[in-house]
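Hypothesis: this fold can be encoded by more than one sequence.
Test: take the structure tokens below, design a sequence, compare later.
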């Protein structure tokens, strides 16, 4: 759909459903059951726009609008509200996936300056080897990833670093135990070494139901992560699963953001497409090198 037509259609839909959104908001307020929103961005930059980037100006507009309508909270607070089974006010948490160097120019300094809690999910192979992501190479724009020093600086500045696998692998494909260890367990240890932070959260690459399998979820909790995040576009209702938080894709722009975050009835009524079981016993799972040497 052409962007202008899509924007007009979204505005019409927003107008048509406004009364329903207002009654939902009243109900959330009366029951202390506001859903928690978790947004995910990838790259904030003015060059090479695509569907996983947003301009510097639009990103700042997002922050301004969010600041007027939501309380910014950490991922840990979002998880805590889920466990508590109550959320008294509308909250939002900002996350980024992949680890693009361009985010160091405007987005991250602006988030740090405003004191907005932010989670930054890093794909370690591209940072370590300083190679571009295949999806950018395929578009003819090999973009720079962050460096290890930048990741360390962000952690020092209070940004919460999370894991986004080693090689941006699709966990929906058949993987061996050794591959799961490399992509989940070793990444946690590596990021902890780089940052000195405890790495508590994991973001699945691609993040849709077909990309998230029980065997990977099992390894995530065996490895000691506290929760994982997906990208299916839903809200997190208090009392729902606190091991897994759904996120909303924020790159597309202002009209889509406002439409979704004013409690788009399609998003608030949709049942979760995710169903997992959890074993929280931390077995102190061995790293990849330990497994290989056995
Ligand atoms: Zn990614």
């Amino acid at each position: 759909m052409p962007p202008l037509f899509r924007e007009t259609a979204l505005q019409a839909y927003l107008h048509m459903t406004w009364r329903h959104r207002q009654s939902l908001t009243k109900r959330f307020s009366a029951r202390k059951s506001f859903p928690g929103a978790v947004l995910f961005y990838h790259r904030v930059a003015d060059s090479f726009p695509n569907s996983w980037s947003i301009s510097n100006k639009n990103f700042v507009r997002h922050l301004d609008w969010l600041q007027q309508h939501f309380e910014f909270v950490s991922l840990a607070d979002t998880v805590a509200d889920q466990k508590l089974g109550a959320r008294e006010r509308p909250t939002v948490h900002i996350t980024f996936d992949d680890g693009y160097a361009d985010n160091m120019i405007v987005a991250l300094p602006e988030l740090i300056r405003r004191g907005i809690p932010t989670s930054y999910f890093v794909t370690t192979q591209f940072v370590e080897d300083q190679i571009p992501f295949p999806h950018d190479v395929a578009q003819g724009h090999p973009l720079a990833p962050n460096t290890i020093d930048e990741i360390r600086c962000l952690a020092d500045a209070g940004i919460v670093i999370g894991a986004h696998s080693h090689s941006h692998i699709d966990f929906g494909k058949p993987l061996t135990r050794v591959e799961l260890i490399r992509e989940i367990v070793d990444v946690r240890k590596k990021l902890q070494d780089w940052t000195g932070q405890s790495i508590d959260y994991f973001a699945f690459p691609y993040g849709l139901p077909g990309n998230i399998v029980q065997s990977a979820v099992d390894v995530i909790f065996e490895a000691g992560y506290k929760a994982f995040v997906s990208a299916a576009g839903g809200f997190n209702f208090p009392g729902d699963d606190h091991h897994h938080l759904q996120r909303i894709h924020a790159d597309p722009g202002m009209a889509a953001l406002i439409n979704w975050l004013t409690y788009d009835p399609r998003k608030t009524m949709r049942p979760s497409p995710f169903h997992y079981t959890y074993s929280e016993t931390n077995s102190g799972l061995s790293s990849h090198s330990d497994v290989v040497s056995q």
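Confidence is low (pLDDT under 50) at residues 289-294. The chain has one domain: 3-293.
Hypothesis status: open.
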